[in-house]
Amino acid sequence: MVFDILHLAIILFLIAGLAFAGGPLILAMLVAPRARGGDLGMSYECGMRPHGNAWTRFGINYYVYALLFIAFDVDVLYLFPAAAHYHTTVGWTAFFEICVFLFFLVLALVYFRAKGVFTWPRKIAL
């Protein structure tokens, strides 16, 4: 194997990429303040001191709904490129592909409903 200018460029770009990725991390470890305690351990409430017990726990149902929203929101985002490309397609193929995609979305909703994911408890246990 002959070492030429292309191999040198690849190695230099690899070193530069590692320096750009690792440089700020190493610099932060060397320069960052080491203070602990005080206001650093407090929860953040818009720059004001928290009132009462600010470390209250929320029920897992909030997180489940948030994850479901993100999952279905990302799935629906796949429909925008399909809708933008739909007018350039010939025949019914794109229509059936979108119908299959929507069928699986509805099937997932039915599955989650059958599993009881969408039932909200009367009292959230902490």
TrEMBL record:
Segments crossing the lipid bilayer: 6-32, 62-80, 92-112
Entry keyword set: Membrane, NAD, Quinone, Transmembrane, Transmembrane helix, Transport
Superkingdom as given in the UniProt entry: Bacteria
Compartments in which it is found: Cell membrane; Membrane
Membrane topology according to the record: Multi-pass membrane protein
Catalytic activity: a quinone + NADH + 5 H(+)(in) = a quinol + NAD(+) + 4 H(+)(out)
Enzyme Commission numbers on file: 7.1.1.-
Chief location of this protein within or outside the cell: membrane
Keyword Chaperone: no
PANTHER family recorded: NADH-UBIQUINONE OXIDOREDUCTASE CHAIN 3
Similarity comment: family membership: Belongs to the complex I subunit 3 family.
Function: NDH-1 shuttles electrons from NADH, via FMN and iron-sulfur (Fe-S) centers, to quinones in the respiratory chain.
Annotated protein name in UniProt: NADH-quinone oxidoreductase subunit
